[in-house]
Amino acid sequence: MRRSQYFLPTLKENPAEAQIVSHRLMLRAGMIRQESAGIYSWLPLGFRVLQRIEQIVREEQDASGALEVLMPTIQSADLWRKSGRYDDYGAEMLRIKDRHEREMLYGPTNEEMITEMFRAGVKSYRDVPRMMYHIQWKFRDEVRPRFGVMRGREFLMKDNYSFDIDFAGAKRSYNKMFVAYLRTFARMGLKAIPMEAESGPIGGDMSHEFQILAETGESQIFCDKELLDFDVLSSGVDYDSDLQPVVDRWTSLYAATDDKHDAAKCPVPAEQLVAARGIEVGHIFYFGTKYSKPLDCVVSGANGEQVPVEMGSYGIGVSRLTGAIIEASHDDAGIIWPESVAPFKVGLINLRSGDAKCDAACTDIYGKLRKAGVEVLYDDREESAGGKFADMDLIGLPWQLIIGPRGLAAGKVELKERRTGKRDELSAEDALARLSKRAA
Description:
Layout: H1 21-28, E1 32-36, E2 39-42, H2 44-63, E3 67-68, E4 74-76, H3 77-83, E5 94-97, E6 103-106, H4 111-121, E7 130-139, E8 154-164, H5 167-187, E9 192-196, E10 206-213, E11 219-224, H6 244-251, E12 255-257, E13 273-288, E14 298-300, E15 306-308, E16 310-317, H7 318-328, E17 330-331, E18 334-335, E19 346-350, H8 356-371, E20 376-379, H9 385-395, E21 399-403, H10 405-409, E22 413-417, E23 423-426, H11 428-439
Helix pairs in contact: 1-7, 2-5, 2-7
């Protein structure tokens, strides 16, 4: 994509309304635009990142055996009354009426709807286990929406629901999501720590939240430093195998948020304890028959008896992750995207647009990068070199390929790695080979 043809309204100054790093940088980098309190439009650069994150989430959900569906954003109040949550949920639920005065709501979550869907379509124990998920925009009317996409009113969420015949099956489904979540966040370049959590309005008896480490995180967390050395991507995972040992390995070590941490009773020696900041990006729940019983979601057991299914719910804040990644990966100049979620892999900078040799070299390299499958943003604007460098650092693409008259005269281009700042002078062919290899 040529920068001259791209919609990327960057800002030089920090917006006054932005209180945290990710909100400031997303506005400055032209990723989002606020439409009203806690509600944002996603501009081209931000939307590309959102799609990258969504795709990683989808791939890991699919690998676990979960089936993707798509449910409506508008739900009937009747279903929520059957489960008993309509009045209990509180003011965060946006309640509306259609033209026929039927009470509806903008879904904050989908336990009721997916349970009714499953109830209507499955009758026998032979049809379980099943897991179904969707990635959908949701709305919760936060009292004080703030921090940009980290705590907005409208947000993109992946929610998955499991259905099993008994607790043993439900635990297997829970473990699948536990492992899938660790893999999902690791693929985004994040260090995620699972912690026992409260279930809140979702309900349930067994719950873990996943906190990623970020210096500017919203909560204080404490954990055994051995957890930071675990590598979930070093080997594959067989989701049909017993995953309990993997879960046990992670949960056997100490990890707690500040509201549960008691320094006097902490079992970890001071030299082994890590104190850090964290951001919650995922939450998994087991809640048994909390929804299946009131909604009459039953299947025929092996002996013909009617058995209410055992259920779990598993959420990832997809849009929230965009902000969380920035909180975990930035510097004073701007965003530093992990390659797996970057909107483009390479920023191609023409230091002297209008110069025939620079233009020709950039056009040639731009074409070759695209042919090699490397996603590139080519800054071909008639803008100062300083302005181009500042914009590229701000939007945080992993690599910058810099073309200028002096380098071309020496047969060299400059390749800069955004994360480390390391710069190499090399031939255009070698730069193309290095970048193409990384895209392979």
